[in-house]
Amino acid sequence: MENTLEQHLFFSSGLDFGLFSLLIMTISLSKILFSNNRKNIDVIFFLLSIFCIFISLTRNVYIVSLFTLITVILFYLHKLHYKYFYKYLPLIYLSLIVIALIFINPILHILKSSFLFNSSSTLMRFKEWSDFFSKYILNGNITNVLFGYGLIQNSRFDLTKNIIIDNIYLSFILYEGLFGLIFYLISYFSIYKYLLKCALKNKNYFEISIISIMSSYLIRGFFNITVFGDYMNFILIFLILLINKNISFNNKTKVEVLS
């Protein structure tokens, strides 16, 4: 049953299907809460997307969806105030996940839960991360640690078929080094900061939905390598940047003409 449900139409995995469903869920909910033009179809899309997230059978998607929903609700309850609080949401969420793994996972291991709450895969990842950290960072060449080994997680090649990381941060260190990881984080927070500014300024449900998804972006890469796995979000972010830059340019042009 699990293998059957994970083969979803045009999606290569339950993760991709779940992340796309997350996008639909967030936009639908944001429109219901923030738009004056809400319709019954939005509620239907929201409920269907919740169902699709469930059948993705992916814990990573469940966790990311939960924190994304929290962000949308926080925006709604606080009426888009507390800018500095939203600014640090990604780090708050990531810290909560780390704390949860430290304290909750041993309990699940003792209970020997099964299916979605089985902790064996998480414990296996911990071992892989520990081995990676010891081999490539603690005992690695300082130049490679800073600039990368040029290796990626890919089962198609003999050189990389045994590299199993499933963590975006460690994968950046392996491929591009600490400098590559720092550049990635700087780029992420720069985009997040600008999108947050747009959402607070325009109070548009579409922009609120995207910033809500971005607030949980650091979490989705904690158990999977998802930089380029969610193309739709990158397209929508680009559209928001393009639209806001165009509006800013037009407003500046009008001011210059009036003056």
Strand content: under 5%
Low-pLDDT parts are: 247-259
Q: Quick one: biggest sheet?
A: none
Overall 3D form: globular
Question: Would you give an account of this structure?
Answer:
The protein is mainly alpha-helical and 259 residues long. It has helices spanning 2-5, 14-34, 40-55, 59-77, 83-87, 89-111, 120-138, 142-147, 168-202, 205-215, 217-220, 231-258. The model is unreliable at 247-259 (pLDDT under 50). The chain contains twelve helices and no strands. It has one domain. It is globular.
What is this structure, in a nutshell?
The protein has 259 residues and is mainly α.
What descriptors fit this protein?
single chain; 259 residues; mainly alpha; 0% strand; disordered C terminus
Annotate the secondary structure layout.
Blueprint lengths: L1 H4 L8 H21 L5 H16 L3 H19 L5 H5 L1 H23 L8 H19 L3 H6 L20 H35 L2 H11 L1 H4 L10 H28 L1
